[in-house]
Design a protein that fits this description.
The protein has about 230 residues and is α/β, with parallel strands linked by helices. The protein folds into two domains: about 140 residues, Rossmann fold, CATH 3.40.50.1000; about 80 residues, Four Helix Bundle (Hemerythrin (Met), subunit A), CATH 1.20.120.1600. It has a six-stranded parallel beta sheet with strand order 3-2-1-4-5-6, sandwiched between helices. Helix 6 runs parallel beside helix 10. The longest helix has 19 residues. The radius of gyration is 19 Å and the shape is elongated. It binds magnesium ion (MG).
Length: about 230
């Protein structure tokens, strides 16, 4: 029996970054805010580092502590602590620096139609968020649309691993084919969805060709409103 049937879908899970908003501008603004915080609070760091070299510093930390790599928050905190220590500041400042970054990172601009889509789907489906990032849905103002929110961390490895999907199926008490995962990334979202045996929808807003070496998604949409049309009951 083929399990790519819209009628079986009871829940829709969403990737967040680049599926509900553009990620890059928010991260860029957040890096700037954090750099500004360093300038004000830990100036010895910015005397020695540019924004770019701080990014390389964080990449080095990620390489040095592979056990943290699946959790963007843990990696950033480890990098902040290492910097503070190296430049003779109290590591307890890491929390404050992270808060500055995190606040700016959550100032995202939702795509056109995102709220309308979530409000509509909410009436007929359970909704969950499954993200490899660390966006704060409460700060963004859309947490109430989701029954569950899963973010990769030290216990839940990032997509394409199946852990977050499996936790979601358990929490919703639904079989895999009752889930539709929507996301922009062919590897993490569609590959992860296939790994977990859920149905998949590729959000392809830039009309890119599907990477032929990967297993194709069950469905594809170029606009969020197409997802509404597809899931109308
Ligand atoms: Mg994404």
């Amino acid at each position: 029996m083929k399990h790519n049937n819209m009628a079986m879908i009871k829940a829709v899970t969403f990737d967040l970054d680049d599926t509900l908003w553009d990620c890059a501008p928010a991260i860029e603004a957040a890096e700037k805010a954090l750099y500004g915080w360093h300038q004000a609070v830990t100036p010895r760091v910015t005397e020695a580092h540019t924004e770019q070299s701080l990014q390389r510093y964080r990449n080095d930390i990620r390489a040095k502590y592979p056990e943290l790599a699946g959790c963007v928050t843990a990696t950033r905190m480890a990098s902040l602590r290492a910097l503070l220590l190296e430049f003779g500041y109290s590591v307890s400042l890491a929390e404050e620096g992270f808060t500055v970054f995190y606040k700016a990172r959550s100032e995202v601009e939702l795509y056109d139609g995102a709220i309308e889509m979530l409000s509509f789907l909410r009436q007929n489906y359970r909704l969950a968020a499954i993200t490899n990032g660390n966006a704060d849905l409460q700060a963004i103002g859309i947490s109430d649309y989701f029954d569950f929110i899963y973010a990769a961390d030290l216990t839940l490895p990032p997509k394409p691993a199946t852990a977050m999907f499996e936790r979601c199926m358990k929490d919703l008490d639904l079989p895999s084919h009752a889930l539709l995962h929507v996301g922009d990334n062919p590897v993490t979202d569609i590959g992860g969805g296939h790994n977990a045996n859920v149905q998949t929808l590729w959000f392809n807003q830039y009309n890119e060709p599907w990477p032929e070496h990967l297993k194709a998604p069950h469905f594809e949409a170029g606009e969020l409103s197409d997802i509404v049309a597809l899931l109308k009951k």
